[in-house]
């Protein structure tokens, strides 16, 4: 069961890293966002969802750390939990800064549009397309890493299931062995008891034969040698 627990810890760590990468990708999208506010709101909703999933996995890893049998393993995992919490706080700070930067950029662009009109609108459109292309490339790269990690998580879950099945098989075999051991011990006791009974029967037969022979000899003696 310790091996299955180690697999669970590894899966939890991999998912924490995956959600952390996804949060960073979304924060980068917010930095690159040039409006409108509805787009920023949608990105923030996605970030909140990823933070919730990340927080849940960190709490799960913390619980696994508390369930460790060895104190050294417990302390190592608790240190990892602390590092993940610090990283999450750093991401939250970056998220707030990215929102502030994005809102300032949107306000500045809106003011510039009012002053410069159509030329600025075209420039903004070009800049937005370039930023969107860059953000799309970064997001695709991060999502590719996320997919690879998801595959690793799935493989780890399959390995954990195999370990659980193997453990159950070993326990069943152990129970059968105990049952067979009890049967063998009972047979041994019966054989020992039978051997003792056989020895007693032989001794009684020998004594009866000796008594019979002694009686025959006595009778023969009285018949043949009555004067003795």
From TrEMBL:
Subcellular location: Endoplasmic reticulum membrane
GO terms classed as biological process: retrograde vesicle-mediated transport, Golgi to endoplasmic reticulum
Domain Sec20 C-terminal: 134-224
Gene Ontology CC terms, in alphabetical order: endoplasmic reticulum membrane; SNARE complex
Membrane topology of the entry: Single-pass type IV membrane protein
InterPro entries: Sec20, Sec20_C
Principal subcellular localization: endoplasmic reticulum
UniProt keyword terms in alphabetical order: Coiled coil, Endoplasmic reticulum, ER-Golgi transport, Membrane, Transmembrane, Transmembrane helix, Transport
Pfam family, one: Sec20
PANTHER family tied to this protein: BNIP1-RELATED, VESICLE TRANSPORT PROTEIN SEC20
Name used for this protein in its record: Vesicle transport protein SEC20
Species whose genome carries this gene: Myotis brandtii (Brandt's bat)
């Amino acid at each position: 069961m310790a091996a299955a627990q180690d697999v669970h810890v590894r899966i939890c760590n991999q998912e924490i890293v995956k959600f952390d990468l996804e949060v960073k990708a979304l924060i980068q999208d917010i930095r690159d966002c040039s409006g409108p506010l509805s787009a920023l709101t949608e990105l923030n909703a996605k970030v909140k969802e990823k933070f919730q999933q990340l927080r849940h996995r960190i709490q799960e890893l913390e619980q696994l750390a508390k369930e460790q049998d060895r104190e050294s393993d417990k302390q190592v995992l608790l240190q990892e939990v602390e590092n993940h919490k610090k990283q999450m706080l750093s991401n939250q700070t970056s998220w707030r800064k990215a929102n502030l930067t994005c809102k300032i950029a949107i306000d500045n662009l809106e003011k510039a549009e009012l002053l410069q009109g159509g030329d600025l609108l075209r420039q903004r459109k070009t800049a937005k397309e370039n930023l969107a292309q860059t953000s799309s490339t970064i997001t695709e790269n991060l999502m590719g890493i996320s997919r690879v990690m998801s595959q690793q998580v799935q493989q780890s879950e399959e390995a954990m299931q195999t370990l659980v099945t193997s453990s159950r098989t070993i326990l069943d075999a152990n129970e059968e062995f105990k049952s067979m051991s009890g049967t063998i011990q009972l047979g041994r006791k019966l054989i020992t008891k039978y051997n003792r009974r056989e020895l007693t029967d032989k001794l009684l037969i020998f004594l009866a034969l000796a008594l019979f022979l002694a009686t025959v000899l006595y009778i023969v003696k009285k018949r043949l040698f009555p004067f003795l």
